[in-house]
Protein backbone atom coordinates (compact mmCIF):
# COMPACT_ATOMS: atom_id res chain seq x y z
CA UNK A 1 0.00 0.00 0.00
CA UNK A 2 2.91 2.32 0.61
CA UNK A 3 3.89 1.96 -3.06
CA UNK A 4 0.31 2.70 -4.13
CA UNK A 5 0.35 5.75 -1.88
CA UNK A 6 3.49 6.94 -3.65
CA UNK A 7 1.71 6.75 -7.00
CA UNK A 8 2.59 3.25 -8.21
CA UNK A 9 -1.01 2.28 -8.89
CA UNK A 10 -0.02 -0.95 -10.63
CA UNK A 11 0.86 -2.29 -7.17
CA UNK A 12 -2.83 -2.19 -6.30
CA UNK A 13 -3.21 -5.37 -8.37
CA UNK A 14 -1.57 -7.42 -5.63
CA UNK A 15 -3.79 -5.90 -2.95
CA UNK A 16 -6.83 -6.53 -5.12
CA UNK A 17 -5.88 -10.18 -5.64
CA UNK A 18 -5.30 -10.64 -1.92
CA UNK A 19 -8.41 -8.88 -0.60
CA UNK A 20 -11.20 -8.65 -3.18
CA UNK A 21 -12.82 -12.00 -2.36
CA UNK A 22 -12.72 -11.37 1.39
CA UNK A 23 -14.17 -7.90 0.95
CA UNK A 24 -16.87 -9.21 -1.40
CA UNK A 25 -17.84 -11.77 1.26
CA UNK A 26 -17.86 -9.02 3.90
CA UNK A 27 -20.34 -7.01 1.84
CA UNK A 28 -22.33 -10.10 0.87
CA UNK A 29 -22.81 -11.13 4.49
CA UNK A 30 -24.08 -7.62 5.27
CA UNK A 31 -26.33 -7.18 2.24
CA UNK A 32 -27.23 -10.73 1.14
CA UNK A 33 -27.13 -9.37 -2.40
CA UNK A 34 -24.45 -10.63 -4.80
CA UNK A 35 -24.57 -7.90 -7.48
CA UNK A 36 -24.74 -5.17 -4.84
CA UNK A 37 -21.76 -6.72 -3.05
CA UNK A 38 -19.80 -6.68 -6.30
CA UNK A 39 -20.64 -2.99 -6.77
CA UNK A 40 -19.65 -2.13 -3.20
CA UNK A 41 -16.37 -4.02 -3.59
CA UNK A 42 -15.64 -2.16 -6.82
CA UNK A 43 -16.46 1.16 -5.13
CA UNK A 44 -14.12 0.26 -2.30
CA UNK A 45 -11.15 -0.24 -4.61
CA UNK A 46 -12.00 3.00 -6.37
CA UNK A 47 -11.91 4.75 -2.99
CA UNK A 48 -8.62 3.11 -2.12
CA UNK A 49 -7.12 4.79 -5.17
CA UNK A 50 -8.88 8.07 -4.52
CA UNK A 51 -7.96 8.26 -0.82
CA UNK A 52 -4.61 6.48 -0.93
CA UNK A 53 -2.91 9.47 0.67
CA UNK A 54 -4.93 8.95 3.86
CA UNK A 55 -3.26 5.58 4.56
CA UNK A 56 -0.90 5.89 7.51
CA UNK A 57 0.83 2.69 8.64
CA UNK A 58 1.40 4.25 12.06
CA UNK A 59 -2.39 4.28 12.61
CA UNK A 60 -2.78 0.55 11.96
CA UNK A 61 -2.23 -2.03 9.27
CA UNK A 62 -3.72 -2.04 5.78
CA UNK A 63 -6.36 -4.61 6.68
CA UNK A 64 -7.78 -2.39 9.44
CA UNK A 65 -7.69 0.63 7.15
CA UNK A 66 -9.45 -1.11 4.26
CA UNK A 67 -12.18 -2.60 6.48
CA UNK A 68 -12.80 0.81 8.02
CA UNK A 69 -13.21 2.17 4.50
CA UNK A 70 -15.52 -0.78 3.66
CA UNK A 71 -17.66 0.04 6.69
CA UNK A 72 -17.94 3.62 5.49
CA UNK A 73 -19.02 2.49 2.02
CA UNK A 74 -21.64 0.21 3.53
CA UNK A 75 -22.89 3.05 5.77
CA UNK A 76 -23.11 5.32 2.72
CA UNK A 77 -25.10 2.63 0.94
CA UNK A 78 -27.55 2.34 3.86
CA UNK A 79 -28.04 6.12 3.95
CA UNK A 80 -28.62 6.16 0.18
CA UNK A 81 -31.07 3.27 0.45
CA UNK A 82 -33.12 5.18 3.02
CA UNK A 83 -33.27 8.23 0.73
CA UNK A 84 -34.26 6.22 -2.33
CA UNK A 85 -36.92 3.69 -1.38
CA UNK A 86 -36.66 0.61 -3.49
CA UNK A 87 -36.40 -3.12 -3.45
CA UNK A 88 -34.40 -4.59 -0.61
CA UNK A 89 -33.10 -8.11 -0.85
CA UNK A 90 -34.85 -10.57 1.38
CA UNK A 91 -32.76 -13.34 2.95
CA UNK A 92 -34.59 -15.93 0.85
CA UNK A 93 -33.32 -14.19 -2.29
CA UNK A 94 -29.69 -14.79 -1.41
CA UNK A 95 -28.70 -17.48 -3.84
CA UNK A 96 -24.96 -17.48 -3.23
CA UNK A 97 -23.13 -19.24 -0.46
CA UNK A 98 -20.31 -17.16 1.01
CA UNK A 99 -18.89 -20.13 2.94
CA UNK A 100 -18.26 -23.72 2.02
CA UNK A 101 -20.51 -26.08 3.99
CA UNK A 102 -18.66 -27.91 6.77
CA UNK A 103 -19.01 -31.62 7.37
CA UNK A 104 -22.09 -32.51 9.41
CA UNK A 105 -24.09 -29.43 8.44
CA UNK A 106 -26.77 -29.43 5.81
CA UNK A 107 -27.79 -26.65 3.47
CA UNK A 108 -30.84 -26.19 5.70
CA UNK A 109 -28.58 -25.35 8.66
CA UNK A 110 -26.86 -22.65 6.61
CA UNK A 111 -30.16 -21.26 5.37
CA UNK A 112 -31.40 -20.97 8.96
CA UNK A 113 -28.16 -19.27 9.93
CA UNK A 114 -28.52 -16.81 7.03
CA UNK A 115 -32.11 -16.05 8.06
CA UNK A 116 -31.10 -15.48 11.68
CA UNK A 117 -28.14 -13.34 10.63
CA UNK A 118 -30.40 -11.22 8.41
CA UNK A 119 -32.67 -10.53 11.40
CA UNK A 120 -29.86 -9.02 13.46
CA UNK A 121 -29.43 -5.27 13.60
CA UNK A 122 -26.87 -3.94 11.09
CA UNK A 123 -24.36 -3.28 13.90
CA UNK A 124 -24.71 -6.79 15.30
CA UNK A 125 -24.46 -8.36 11.86
CA UNK A 126 -21.38 -6.29 11.06
CA UNK A 127 -19.53 -7.23 14.26
CA UNK A 128 -20.17 -10.94 13.63
CA UNK A 129 -19.16 -10.71 9.99
CA UNK A 130 -15.91 -8.98 10.95
CA UNK A 131 -15.06 -11.34 13.80
CA UNK A 132 -16.41 -14.69 12.65
CA UNK A 133 -16.60 -14.60 8.86
CA UNK A 134 -13.67 -12.30 8.10
CA UNK A 135 -11.53 -13.64 10.95
CA UNK A 136 -10.37 -10.25 12.21
CA UNK A 137 -8.92 -10.07 15.69
CA UNK A 138 -10.66 -7.98 18.30
CA UNK A 139 -7.76 -5.50 18.25
CA UNK A 140 -8.26 -4.96 14.51
CA UNK A 141 -12.01 -4.56 14.93
CA UNK A 142 -11.41 -2.03 17.71
CA UNK A 143 -9.31 0.03 15.27
CA UNK A 144 -11.94 -0.27 12.55
CA UNK A 145 -14.83 0.69 14.81
CA UNK A 146 -12.80 3.08 17.00
CA UNK A 147 -13.88 1.32 20.20
CA UNK A 148 -12.01 -0.41 23.00
CA UNK A 149 -11.27 -4.12 22.78
CA UNK A 150 -13.48 -4.67 25.83
CA UNK A 151 -16.39 -2.95 24.07
CA UNK A 152 -15.85 -5.14 21.00
CA UNK A 153 -15.91 -8.29 23.15
CA UNK A 154 -19.19 -7.20 24.73
CA UNK A 155 -20.71 -6.43 21.32
CA UNK A 156 -19.64 -9.82 19.93
CA UNK A 157 -21.02 -11.62 22.98
CA UNK A 158 -24.38 -9.84 22.70
CA UNK A 159 -24.60 -10.37 18.95
CA UNK A 160 -23.83 -14.09 19.31
CA UNK A 161 -26.43 -14.40 22.05
CA UNK A 162 -29.03 -12.70 19.83
CA UNK A 163 -28.04 -14.81 16.82
CA UNK A 164 -28.35 -17.99 18.88
CA UNK A 165 -31.80 -16.93 20.07
CA UNK A 166 -32.97 -16.14 16.52
CA UNK A 167 -31.48 -19.33 15.11
CA UNK A 168 -33.14 -21.64 17.62
CA UNK A 169 -36.50 -19.83 17.40
CA UNK A 170 -36.77 -21.30 13.91
CA UNK A 171 -37.00 -24.88 15.20
Structure write-up:
With 171 residues, the protein is mainly α. 68% of the residues lie in helices and 0% in strands. It has two domains: 89 residues, Orthogonal Bundle (Rna Polymerase Sigma Factor, Chain: A), CATH 1.10.1740.10; 67 residues, Arc Repressor Mutant, subunit A (Orthogonal Bundle). About 8% of the residues have low confidence.
Strand and helix map with partners:
Blueprint: H1 2-5, H2 12-31, H3 34-50, H4 62-83, H5 107-119, H6 122-133, H7 138-145, H8 149-169
Helix pairs in contact: 2-3, 2-6, 3-4, 4-7, 5-8, 6-8, 7-8
Question: Key terms for this structure?
Answer:
mainly alpha, 68% helix, 2 domains, Rna Polymerase Sigma Factor, Chain: A, 171 residues, globular
- The number of distinct structural domains comes to 2
Query: What's the alpha carbon Rg, rounded to whole Å?
Result: 17 Å
User: CATH class of the largest domain, please?
Assistant: Mainly Alpha
Q: Give the helix proportion (percent range).
A: 55-70%
Largest sheet descriptor? none
Which superfamily, in CATH terms, is the homologous superfamily of the largest domain?
RNA polymerase sigma factor, region 2, helix turn helix motif
CATH architecture of the largest domain: Orthogonal Bundle
How does the helix and strand content classify structurally? mainly alpha
Q: Which stretches are low in confidence, meaning pLDDT under 50 for 5 or more residues running?
A: 86-98
Amino acid sequence: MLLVKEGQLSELTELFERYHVKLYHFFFRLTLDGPLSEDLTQNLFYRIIRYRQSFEPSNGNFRSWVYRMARNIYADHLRQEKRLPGRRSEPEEATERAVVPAAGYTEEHYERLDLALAQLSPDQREILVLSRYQGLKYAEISQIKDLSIAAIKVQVYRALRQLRSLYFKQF
